[in-house]
Amino acid sequence: MIFDDKDIERFLRLIYAGKVTEYALDEGMYFAIADYLKKGVYEGFGVSFKELSSIIEKGIESPFGAVDLELLTELRENIYLFSAAKTFHETEALRGVLIGENGAVRSFKEFKEEALTINEQWNVNWMKTEYETAYGQAQNAVRWNEIEKNKDVLPLLKYSAVEDERTSEICAPLDGITLPVDDPFWDTFMPLNHFNCRCTVEQLSEGAETDKGDVKDTLIASEQNMNDMFKMNPGKERVVFDKDHPYFDVAKKDVAFAKTNFGLPIPENDN
């Protein structure tokens, strides 16, 4: 859990008192979410933003270069945008249980009981999946940088699914598809292709290319089964969470507020 009992109590009391609303979000909650998800990004990427910034600044020999820092900077910013959107919607959900079914304001005890269920969903169950997604997308984003660097000598990519009882109906048909690095196939099907996706790609110097005409129906079916937020290449789009993630979907009246990152700051550096 990213919040202990003391954190949760403080936050819920602020909401109950009307000091925290969707339009006056709690920075403590926002930064806690962002810091947790950044750890997933840095673990998947193989280096933290602070470490990589220092490496580049000091000219230290490293497998990472300036292009990797540019990518990591954009992934980090995406995490802050995502965390702000999550904070907005979670606060909205929590404020939604302030009023009971009888139309009266719940007692704090009653509100807390309802709010703890929401917290379990948002900050335990969903957060675990979001952390794993942050890890996997960052891993594949930096992998794409490597693929681009080596495509002159390793011009092909082969899709590799883990074949077992957990393999999804999205990924199983894609296993073994081999196409050039620059083929638009990878704009949509570069892993991750769903939550908890375990697929990878293998870069090859030579091999038999898949005839896309032979797998046309397979590609259509797999894409139809995918959530829109995964129909992208994290290394090309340079994001962890795509714009189609439901957290980024707000009511028309809130669009302008969302463009301010919901009134929340994005730090230039990590502590």
What does this structure look like?
- This protein has 271 residues and is mainly α.
- It has a three-stranded antiparallel sheet with strand order 2-1-3, with no helix packed on it.
- The protein folds into two domains: 169 residues, no CATH class; 79 residues, no CATH class.
- It starts with a helix and ends in a 13-residue tail after the last helix.
Short overview:
This protein has about 270 residues and is mainly alpha-helical.
Mean pLDDT, all residues: 96
Number of separate helices: 9
User: Beta-sheet strand percentage?
Assistant: under 5%
Structural class of the helices, strands and pairings?
mainly alpha
The total domain count is 2
Low-confidence stretches: none
Q: Summarize the biggest pleated sheet.
A: 3 strands, antiparallel
- The general outline is globular
- Assign a percent range to the helix content: 40-55%
Walk across the major sheet and give the strand order: 2-1-3
Order of helices and strands: HHHHHEEHEHHH
N-to-C span: 21 Å
Radius of gyration: 21 Å
Oligomer: single chain
Tally of DSSP β-strands: 3
List keywords for this structure.
about 270 residues, mainly alpha, 3-stranded antiparallel beta sheet, globular
Describe the secondary-structure layout.
Blueprint: H1 5-16, H2 27-45, H3 49-58, H4 66-95, H5 108-150, E1 156-160, E2 178-180, H6 185-189, E3 200-204, H7 216-225, H8 234-237, H9 255-258
Antiparallel strand pairs: 1-2, 1-3
Helix pairs in contact: 1-5, 2-4, 2-5, 3-4, 4-5
